[in-house]
């Protein structure tokens, strides 16, 4: 193959521009920038995302500098928007997943025990009776009596006003019936064990 020769008038492209300037080193450093500035996809950060002056408007506007009113209003608007964003921002979720049962076990309310289930049932009945009695006392209904079989009975003939005041919601009666059923089952097993 014969070597190709250029004519005397041909020059390389951009020959009249310098090879490097005082900005070249910064450009190369930006090219090899650390994450997240170096990424082009995923969680990237661009120049406009970086809050370079975010702390300026959080500082108090100096009265000595005599800023014009429009500057002070801008400060107030930026500060107001920042406060609203901080209030709306949700806290970050914890990275490590916690086991629900382990975290409950570490509290004083949920403990492991080696109790027999009949003993646990008796304790549950007693504590349930206490809870329902506390609710009755909270409403100051001294004329209602909750017996140990979870029957709720009035101690006297009630007036219309007392009857209206002594009405409980569905949740109260549902819990009362569940505890009543538990008490019946536990009592049957207690009777069986006593006469073994």
Outline the structure in words.
With 196 residues, this protein is mainly α. 47% of the residues lie in helices and 3% in strands. It has 7 helices and 2 strands, in the order H-H-H-H-H-E-E-H-H. Strands 1-2 form a two-stranded antiparallel ribbon.
Short structural summary:
The protein is 47% helix and 3% strand. The chain is mainly alpha-helical and 196 residues long. Helix 5 (117-138) packs antiparallel against helix 7 (170-194).
How many helices? The count is: 7
Helix and strand element order: HHHHHEEHH
- Mean residue pLDDT: 84
What structural class do you assign from the helix and strand content?
Answer: mainly alpha
Which term fits the overall shape? Answer: elongated
Q: Which blocks of ≥5 consecutive residues have pLDDT under 50?
A: none
Please state how the strands of the largest beta sheet are arranged side by side: 1-2
User: Radius of gyration over alpha carbons?
Assistant: 39 Å
Q: What composes the largest sheet?
A: 2 strands, antiparallel
Q: How far do the termini sit from each other?
A: 114 Å
Keywords:
7 helices, two-stranded antiparallel sheet, 196 residues, 3% strand
């Amino acid at each position: 193959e014969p070597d190709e020769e250029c004519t005397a008038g041909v020059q390389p492209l951009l020959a009249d521009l310098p090879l490097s300037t005082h900005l070249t080193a910064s450009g190369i450093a930006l090219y090899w920038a650390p994450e997240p500035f170096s990424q082009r996809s995923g969680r990237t950060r661009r120049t406009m995302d970086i809050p370079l002056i975010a702390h300026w408007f959080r500082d108090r506007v100096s009265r000595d500098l005599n800023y014009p009113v429009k500057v002070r209003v801008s400060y107030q608007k930026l500060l107001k928007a920042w406060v609203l964003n901080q209030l709306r921002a949700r806290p970050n979720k914890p990275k490590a997943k916690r086991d629900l049962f382990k975290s409950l076990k570490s509290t004083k309310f949920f403990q492991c025990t080696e109790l027999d289930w009949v003993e646990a049932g008796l304790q549950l009945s007693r504590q349930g009776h206490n809870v329902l009695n506390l609710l009755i006392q909270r409403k100051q209904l001294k004329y209602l009596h909750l017996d140990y079989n979870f029957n709720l009975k009035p101690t006297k003939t009630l007036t219309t006003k007392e009857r209206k005041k002594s009405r409980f919601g569905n949740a109260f009666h549902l819990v009362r019936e569940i505890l009543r059923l538990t008490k019946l089952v536990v009592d049957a097993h207690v009777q069986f064990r006593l006469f073994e």
